[in-house]
Design brief:
- GO terms for molecular function: acetyl-CoA carboxylase activity.
- This protein is a component of the acetyl coenzyme A carboxylase complex; first, biotin carboxylase catalyzes the carboxylation of the carrier protein and then the transcarboxylase transfers the carboxyl group to form malonyl-CoA.
- This is Biotin carboxyl carrier protein of acetyl-CoA carboxylase.
- It contains 2 helices and 11 strands.
- The protein has 160 residues and is an alpha+beta fold.
- 14% of the residues lie in helices and 33% in strands.
Length: 160
């Protein structure tokens, strides 16, 4: 059955005002449901190939012109005085060099330039990530053994 035959069958079914028609051969099956049946036209070939539909984008939510200051906004403002250590690659973030060892750093620890702060595993290679600045670790932004993206913030450091 080619596309012309399918189009003719759809026209015939819509004029006949029936709710559903099924047509089946050895290698082809088609089901046409009209609005009387509540569904749209669908057809499937026996060696079926499934494709996912493009995700629907939600309309942006309307926001009021003046919004109250949230806790996240005040935290972001206070975090602006801190320097961020970011991931230089995509991979899996680990706080320890191996499962039986201690973590590289904790919140409150002092770091110096060149000190290893974590390991990022990428393609079975464990890459030591060194601090680019000296200071005190204020916050660890990523959970252990979680995936990280390139340029994703990992730590907040107070350089003072």
């Amino acid at each position: 059955m080619d596309i012309k035959d399918i189009q003719n069958l759809i026209k015939f079914v819509s004029k006949a005002e029936v709710s559903e028609v099924k047509y089946k051969t050895k290698d082809f099956e088609i089901t046409i449901k009209t609005p009387l049946g509540g569904n749209e036209v669908s057809y499937v070939a026996q060696p079926a190939m499934y494709h996912s539909a493009a995700p629907q984008q939600a309309a942006p939510a309307q926001t009021p012109a003046v919004a109250p200051v949230s806790a996240e906004q005040t935290e972001a403002a206070s975090d602006s005085k801190y320097v961020t250590i970011k991931s230089p690659m995509i991979g899996t973030f680990y706080r320890k060099p191996s499962p039986d060892k201690d973590v590289f750093i904790n919140v409150g620890d002092e770091v110096s330039t060149g000190k290893v702060v974590c390991v990022i595993e990428a393609m079975k290679l464990f890459n030591q990530i060194e601090s680019e600045i000296s200071g005190k670790i204020v916050k660890i932004l990523v959970d252990d053994a979680s995936p990280v993206e390139y340029d994703q913030p990992l730590f907040l450091v107070d350089p003072s």
